[in-house]
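Need C-alpha cells for this chain, all 171 residues.
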Amino acid sequence: MLLAAMKYVKAIYPGTFDPLTNGHLDLIERGSKIVDELVVAILSNADKGTPLFTVGERIEMIAEAIAVQGFANVTVTTFDGLLVEFARAQGAKAVLRGIRAISDYEYEFPMAMMNRRLSPNLETLFMMPAEQYTYVSSRLIKGVFNLGGDVSELVPPLVVQRLKAKGTRKI
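Here are the C-alpha cells for all 171 residues:
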C-alpha cells in the first residue's frame, strides 16, 4: 500500500551554466538526492548577452562533470521558450532553483509565482548552495578568470581547461 502512494518525481534545474561552477554541481548533487530524476536544462535563448561557451560546449562540460561525479539519475539537455512548457513536455513535477542571496530571491520569486500561475501543479524548490559557493556566479568566474585570477577551486577542472582553451585571459 505504501509503495502505491509513492510518486516518481522528476525535476528540472534550468540555467545558462556559462560556465558550470562548483555551486551548480553542489545543487545538482544535493538535488539529485531528493528527486528521482534531475534534468539539467540549458536555456539556449537566454537574455544574458553573448555566452562565452556555445550550448554544445556547455552540454559537453555538464555531461562530463555528471559522469565524473557519478550522478546516475541526472541528465542534461537544452530548451527554448517557456520553462513551464518544457517541464510539462518532460513530465516534470518540480523546478530546482538556487538562491545565493536576497537578490537571487527577489529575482526568482516573481518567476516562481508566474510559473505557478501558468502551471499550478509545477512546484519550485529553492535550495541554497554550500557556504563556500554562496558568492560564486558564472559571470564572476568569467570576470575573475579574464583578469588573471585563479578560479580553480570554484569550478570543475574541466571548466578551467575549457576557459584556458578559449584564451580569454587578458594577462
